[in-house]
From TrEMBL, chain A:
It comes from Acidithiobacillus concretivorus. It comes from the Bacteria. PANTHER family: UPF0237 PROTEIN MJ1558. Residues 5-80, 91-170 form the ACT domain. Pfam families: ACT_6. InterPro entries: ACT-like_dom_sf, ACT_dom, UPF0237/GcvR_regulator. This is Amino acid-binding protein. The lineage of its organism: Bacteria, Pseudomonadati, Pseudomonadota, Acidithiobacillia, Acidithiobacillales.
Automatic annotation (TrEMBL), chain B:
InterPro entries: Peptide_deformylase (IPR023635), Peptide_deformylase_sf (IPR036821). This is Peptide deformylase. Fe cation binds at residues 96, 138, 142. GO terms for molecular function: peptide deformylase activity. It is an enzyme of class 3 (hydrolase).
Amino acid sequence: MSQALLTVIGEDRPGIVAAVTQALFTADCSIGDASMMRLGGYFTIMQVIDYSRDLGSVEMALDPAIKRLNLRVHLDPISSVAVAADLPNTRVTVYGADHPGIVAGVTGALAAIGFNVIDLESESSGSAERPLYVMVIQGYAPDGIESVRKAVLPLREKEGVEVGVHPIEAAVF
Amino acid sequence: MAVLSILTYPDARLQRKAEAVQVFDDELQKFIGDLTETMYAGPGGVGIAAPQVDRHQRIVIVDVRPKLGEDCHGLMVLINPELMAWEGMAVGREGCMSVPDFTGNVIRAERIQVQAQDVLGRERSYECEGFEARAVQHEMDHLDGFLFLDRLVSRKTDLFRRKNYQKSQ
């Protein structure tokens, strides 16, 4: 089995996930980690696939769906690096009036303390006159949650946004 | 006392609805002892439900002292437990001895009131909050054949998203 990272982008409409995954199934691929979501008016898929034949046959299997749904597809072979073991221990939530520089400011402060972003989701919403930006970051803070608070809470004033820092504790029951 | 073996997903027995305990005898006491030992031996060690060891009776044990120290009820043996009241909601990441190697975000009530019988059949009532309340709710779900997998929420719902709310008719 070899692995590839498959990226799919297309104008959002019903049936994209079904068409792509059906094509992969017929090409003997299996799907690993995946993120599939609408961003703006586009539907996006990024997923790790295991394929048994060659990448050309995967592309061929996808071709009818690409043409029918007007998708853009990209396949990157990847070496099977071990799955990173660090689990998220901190969630940072940010929201406020949208303006350039929020993400750069927050993630810059996080990078400076060695925080590893594992998952970042954000959304521009609100009305055109009063745009609102909402972002949720989950990641691993090597020096613990207090270091994150110290790093990002000053951005409340500097960027004029609300910032929350919360522990993520997976409780096993 | 003995450590019992734990059923793991996708074992269909985890989805069975458990039956009320009717008889409070020595055998029940011995089983509660074994179940408690099994709980402490587990990776989390803070909660267990009888269906997890293939005994389909409404028995839950919770002891969150390993996590919270003495700031909790300590060992709670909840037989035929009923949720009498709840308030608040919180998202928390949960794992389960019966679902190895997977954790997910689940919404639970923040504060609960539970009525149950103890090992001798006496009525007891507990008010729990936070982590302890979450543990009780997680274990009580096993009695109805639910795993936390049945209650997973999308990461996106961690945040309040008003624009997705339906307008009331």
